[in-house]
TrEMBL record, chain A:
InterPro entries: NTP_transf_5, WW_dom. This is WW domain-containing protein. It comes from Sphingomonas xinjiangensis. It holds the Pfam family NTP_transf_5. Residues 272-303 form the WW domain.
From TrEMBL, chain B:
This is HprK-related kinase A. It comes from Sphingomonas xinjiangensis. Keywords: Kinase, Transferase. One of its GO terms (molecular function) is kinase activity. Coiled coil: none annotated.
Length: 339, 286
């Protein structure tokens, strides 16, 4: 019996092989639950461990997590429905993204998943109509800062976030899946054209595009915060849809390397069944694993330097250097400090 | 984390980690008669930490964290580390509790039936609960009452009673033999001193009770009583609950069941002697 680690690998191991938790002692359980909460994977873990014999207090904690995730699902679907109604008159399609799409379509990736904001995709030429429809239906601006507002509208792949004044829920309206400043420009028209309807007027991306989006979200955008969760999405999606046609589709969006990396890391961490070419780590993969699992036994972030490296990277890939300098200078003058 | 202690309060287990020894020592001392979490597995983790390594020694400031955090929570000086630990445990409950509907209320029990007292800060929830404990009621908690949606019963959360300002001397007079924590001066809520619940309240902390009376006390008025209609009780309790919205339909069902089955009274009182007499009379009239 090997030494039990207390970083993100503990969580990945439990998700990968639920029976492996039978050897955990109380210290390991405390670490596992803390890390799962910190990575917002406690609901997914709770469903993975459903039926596995665990200590009594763990049973209670996981029951609470399942109930909480169920409430999350209900609330997410309600937000989707509210948006569909708001868009109804303007005849704008509601293409659900990420967590809400997973639960609406009943995918394994949605089981126990935590869902915060509602993310939707709208054709670029309908974005003004979408904004007007939401404002008319009770959503309001979150950001009052003029620089942020202009920045979002000019350079981002989404509207500035809107929040509903009664339900206090946020919506992110995307017109593509990566910022316009990024080097990679996914084919938004293809994403929308090939989206699939699943009844009740709601749509989601095609299976291959869902995986492309998950990979883009992981590696082409952001600093890998919440990476274990996003990679768990990728694992569940690959497991459910398989990888047929994925490479061709990823190449269409310029996301070939992101998808390949997501598949390799998912295989390494979660044991996802993938084609042979994705079964061995390559290049900087170990560094990504180091970042993804950077938690201590209290669920706190560790490996400060690695995290900082990925923070810098997230900005470097998001915009060209001169633009980045100007952006950071403006933000710094406004008192923003990186966490 | 460097220093660690574990304890159970009512049905909830905590694991508290700290960058400093002092808050852990205070918690261990004041909670010495409390059990460990079941199977040593905690429901919630609490972190008391220095934002920068040197702030452990240089003007040490205790930041509050844990499984659930609020951004920009102001740190406390190390001399108030005990208060930081208490606040951090409350925060985990307020933000993370999903098994029970959480009511911001104090609760005392007699004959298996509970009185819940809720109100804004300063209404006298903690003071009245402590004084009722001195008169033979079992203290179930001065901060949170936990309603079990499955049974409708209330579970106690008898953490240290947080006494503020003038209430400190009054309760010390009523409970001269009780154990108290250090006097914490200059906290965000003035002077605070913690009272350790009596042995019986600690020993019975796992026992749930049937909610029998709901009180909305208000301190600083002429003595008065009025029945509160279910509609008003419902609205006031949704405001007094930190997890009502997050509990969804379970929370709604638990709350409406409670509101329908338990009589509610608002009591105004000029001093605690009057209030205690009012409570006893309302209790006897049930």
């Amino acid at each position: 019996m090997g030494r039990i680690v207390s970083d993100g690998l503990l969580l990945a191991g439990a998700l990968r092989d639920p029976m492996s938790t039978t050897i955990l002692d109380s210290k390991d359980w405390n670490a596992l639950l803390a890390i799962a909460r910190a990575e917002q994977l406690i609901g997914s873990l709770a469903w993975r461990l459903h039926g596995v014999e665990v200590p009594v207090p763990v049973t209670r904690i996981l029951e609470d997590a399942r109930r909480s995730a169920e409430q999350c699902r209900v609330a997410a679907l309600w937000e989707a429905e509210m948006t569909r109604r708001a868009f109804g008159a303007a005849d704008i399609p509601v293409i659900l993204l990420k967590g809400t799409a997973f639960v609406a379509a009943g995918l394994a990736a949605g089981v126990g998943r935590s869902i915060g904001d509602l993310d939707i995709l709208v054709p670029h030429e309908r974005i003004d109509a979408a904004e007007a429809a939401l404002l008319a239906a009770g959503w309001e601006w979150v950001k009052s800062d003029a620089y942020d507002d202009v920045y979002y509208r000019r350079w981002m792949h989404e509207l500035p976030p809107l929040i509903h004044r009664e339900r206090d829920r946020m919506i992110d309206v995307h017109h593509t899946i990566l910022p316009l400043t990024a080097r990679v420009r996914p084919n938004a028209a293809a994403l929308i054209a090939d989206s699939v309807e699943f009844g009740s007027g709601l749509r989601m991306l095609s299976p291959q595009d869902v995986m492309c989006h998950a990979a883009a979200h992981l590696f082409a955008d952001g600093d890998l915060a919440g990476g274990l969760r996003n990679l768990w999405d990728m694992h569940c999606l690959l497991d459910e849809f398989g990888s047929e046609g994925l490479v061709t589709r990823a190449d269409l969006h310029g996301l070939g390397s992101a998808v390949a990396r997501a598949a390799r890391l998912s295989h390494a961490l979660y044991g996802t069944q993938v084609p042979e070419g994705w079964q061995r780590l390559r290049g900087a993969d170990p560094l990504y694993l180091r970042r993804l699992t950077a938690r201590d036994g209290w669920g706190r972030p560790t490996r400060r330097l690695t995290r900082f490296g990925f923070y810098v990277r997230s900005h470097a890939i998001r915009m060209p250097p001169t633009m980045l300098l100007r952006h950071l200078w403006t933000k710094w003058r406004k008192g923003h400090v990186p966490r | 984390m460097r220093h660690l202690t574990e304890l159970r309060i009512g049905p909830v287990g905590f694991r508290i980690g700290s960058d400093w020894q002092e808050p852990i020592e205070s918690i261990r001392d004041l909670y010495r008669d409390y059990p460990a979490p079941d199977d040593q597995i905690a429901d919630f983790n609490v972190h008391l930490f220095a934002a920068r390594p040197w702030r452990r020694f240089l003007r040490p400031a205790v930041h509050i964290g844990g499984d659930f955090v609020i951004p920009d929570a102001a740190p406390l000086p190390l001399s108030q580390g005990l208060l930081a630990a208490e606040m951090a445990m409350n925060l985990q409950m307020a933000l993370g509790q999903r098994r029970y509907l959480l009511l911001h209320a104090s609760a005392v029990e007699r004959d298996g039936k509970a009185v819940l007292m809720t109100g804004l800060s300063g209404a006298g929830k903690s003071t009245l609960a402590a004084l009722m404990m001195s008169r033979g009621w079992r203290l179930m908690g001065d901060e949170f009452a936990l309603i079990d949606p499955a049974t409708g019963r209330v579970h106690g959360f008898p953490r240290l009673v947080s006494l503020k300002n003038a209430a400190i001397d009054e309760v010390m007079r009523a409970l001269p033999k009780a154990r108290f924590g250090p006097v914490l001066k200059g906290t965000p809520k003035g002077t605070i001193r913690h009272l350790v619940p009596d042995a019986r309240s600690i020993a019975a902390m796992g026992e749930a009770a049937v909610p029998a009376l709901l009180l909305f006390p208000s301190f600083g008025f002429d003595a008065d009583e009025r029945k509160v209609l279910p509609s008003e009780v419902f609205v006031r309790l949704t405001q007094a609950s930190t997890n009502y919205v997050a509990m969804g339909e379970h929370g709604f069902t638990a709350l409406t069941d409670l509101v329908r089955s338990v009589p509610a009274q608002a009591i105004d009182y000029p001093d605690t002697t009057t209030a205690l007499a009012q409570v006893e009379r309302l209790w006897d009239a049930l």
